[in-house]
C-alpha cells in the first residue's frame, strides 16, 4: 500500500467506482450510496434524467433522445464529467452540503490492481470535481481483503479473489502487502455476454439484456454444478424474424458456454499460485481462497474453484460491499497499523 493508514484516517469519504455499481462510504454515516453506475441523459437538452437504479431500469427501453451512459467501464472512469454528475446526484443535496462544510475535504478511492496512471488520474479528477482537496488511492485487493476480515497484517498468506463486473482480480497477501497478484479482464459482464452469445448462435434467439441474471439462476438451479435441471424454457426474440419465440435450452450446454470465460479466471489463479513463494502456498492449504465482489454470487462458482484448485473456497459475507467497507474501516481507524519496530543494531 503506498498510502499510509495515517493518511487514510484523515479522509472523510471513501468511494468505490465500479463498472457495475458505485458505492460511497461517509465517515460517521456508513455506507450511504450503493447504486448502479448508470446515468440517463436527455441528448436534446443535455439534462440528466435519472441516475442509479432508475437509470439502469431504462437500459434498452429508451426513446432515442435519451442516452443511458455508463461513465465507468472496464473498472476505470472513462467519462470524468458524467461520473461527477452521477456521483453528485447519487450523494444528494443533504450529504453534499455536509461534505462541503469540511474545510479540507479528503477522499479515498479504490483503484484496480495494476491500474495505469491515466486511469488513476481519471478517478482523482472525478473526486476533485466533487470538492475533494486530496485523494488517496488504495488497491481494491487490499481494501477488499480488509473489508472481509482477512488477517491481512499477519505474516501468513491469505488469498483473495475479487470478482467484479469488468475484471477479476486475485492476489496472495502477507504482512499487509500484495505478494503476487493478477488482474484478469473477465468478470460478470463477460459471463453475461457468454450466455447471450450462446443463445444467439445456437438458438438464434435474442435475450432482453435484463433477463440474463434470472436466466443464469433458473438454468443452473444449483449453479454451475451438474445437479441442476436438465433443460429450461426461455423467452426471447428471434434473430431473423424479430418475433417473440421460446426455446428449450439444455443447461449443460449453457454451463459449457459459461466455462469458457471462467477458464481465464482459473488460469489467473494458477499463475498467482505459481509465482507465489512455497511457504505462502503452504499457508493457503488451510486458509484457502476468499471470494468477494458481486460475481462471487454466481451460483456454483465457488464449487468450480474448489474443484479446480483443491483448496478451500469461501464466499465472504455480503461480498459486493467488501471493498468499500474495508476502505471505510481504514477511514474509521478500526484497522490497527502493523508496527514493525526496527531491531536495535548491536554495537
Ligand atoms: N446473484 C448474482 N449472480 C450472478 N452474478 C451476480 C449476482 N449479483 C451480482 N452479480 C454480478 O456481479 C457484478 C457486479 O459486481 P460488483 O458490484 O462487485 O462490480 P463492480 O465493483 O461494479 O465492478 P468492477 O469491480 O469490475 O469495476 C455484475 O456483473 C453482476 O452481474
Ligand atoms: Mg469492484
TrEMBL record:
Binding residue positions for ATP: 165-167
Keyword tags: ATP-binding, Cell shape, Cytoplasm, Nucleotide-binding
Predominant localisation class: cytoplasm
Pfam annotation, one family: MreB_Mbl
Annotated transmembrane regions: none
Top-level taxon in the UniProt lineage: Bacteria
Localization (cell): Cytoplasm
Entry keyword Cytoplasm: yes
Function: Forms membrane-associated dynamic filaments that are essential for cell shape determination. Acts by regulating cell wall synthesis and cell elongation, and thus cell shape. A feedback loop between cell geometry and MreB localization may maintain elongated cell shape by targeting cell wall growth to regions of negative cell wall curvature.
Protein's name in the database: Cell shape-determining protein MreB
Upper classification of the organism: Bacteria, Bacillati, Actinomycetota, Actinomycetes, Kitasatosporales
Amino acid at each position: 500500500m503506498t498510502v499510509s493508514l495515517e493518511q487514510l484516517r484523515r479522509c472523510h469519504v471513501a468511494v468505490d467506482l465500479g463498472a457495475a455499481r458505485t458505492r460511497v462510504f461517509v465517515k460517521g454515516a456508513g455506507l450511504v450510496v450503493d447504486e448502479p453506475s448508470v446515468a440517463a441523459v436527455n441528448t436534446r437538452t443535455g439534462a440528466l434524467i435519472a441516475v442509479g437504479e432508475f437509470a439502469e431500469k431504462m437500459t434498452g427501453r429508451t426513446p432515442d433522445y435519451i442516452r443511458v451512459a455508463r461513465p465507468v467501464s472496464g473498472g476505470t472512469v472513462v467519462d470524468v464529467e458524467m461520473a461527477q454528475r452521477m456521483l453528485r446526484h447519487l450523494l444528494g443535496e443533504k450529504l453534499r452540503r455536509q461534505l462541503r462544510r469540511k474545510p479540507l475535504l479528503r477522499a479515498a478511492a479504490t483503484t484496480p490492481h495494476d491500474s495505469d496512471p491515466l486511469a488513476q488520474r481519471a478517478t482523482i479528477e472525478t473526486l476533485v470535481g466533487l470538492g475533494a482537496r486530496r485523494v488517496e488511492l488504495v488497491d481494491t485487493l487490499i481494501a477488499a481483503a480488509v473489508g472481509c476480515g482477512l488477517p491481512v497484517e499477519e505474516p501468513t498468506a491469505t488469498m483473495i479473489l475479487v470478482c467484479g463486473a469488468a475484471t477479476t482480480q486475485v492476489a496472495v497477501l502477507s504482512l499487509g502487502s500484495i505478494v503476487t497478484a493478477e488482474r484478469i479482464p473477465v468478470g460478470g459482464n463477460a459471463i453475461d455476454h457468454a450466455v447471450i452469445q450462446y443463445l444467439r448462435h445456437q438458438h438464434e434467439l435474442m435475450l432482453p439484456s435484463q433477463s440474463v441474471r434470472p436466466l443464469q439462476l433458473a438454468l443452473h438451479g444449483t449453479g454451475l454444478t451438474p445437479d441442476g435441471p436438465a433443460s429450461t424454457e426461455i423467452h426471447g426474440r428471434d434473430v431473423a424474424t424479430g418475433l417473440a419465440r421460446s426455446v428449450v435450452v439444455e443447461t449443460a450446454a449453457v454451463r459449457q458456454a459459461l466455462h469458457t470465460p471462467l477458464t481465464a479466471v482459473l488460469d489467473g489463479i494458477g499463475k498467482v499460485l505459481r509465482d507465489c513463494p512455497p511457504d505462502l502456498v503452504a499457508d493457503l492449504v488451510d486458509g484457502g481462497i476468499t471470494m468477494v465482489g458481486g460475481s462471487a454470487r454466481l451460483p456454483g462458482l465457488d464449487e468450480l474453484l474448489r474443484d479446480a484448485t483443491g483448496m478451500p473456497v469461501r464466499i465472504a459475507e455480503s461480498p459486493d460491499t467488501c471493498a468499500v467497507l474495508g476502505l471505510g474501516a481504514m477511514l474509521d481507524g478500526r484497522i490497527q497499523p502493523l508496527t514493525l519496530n526496527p531491531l536495535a543494531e548491536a554495537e
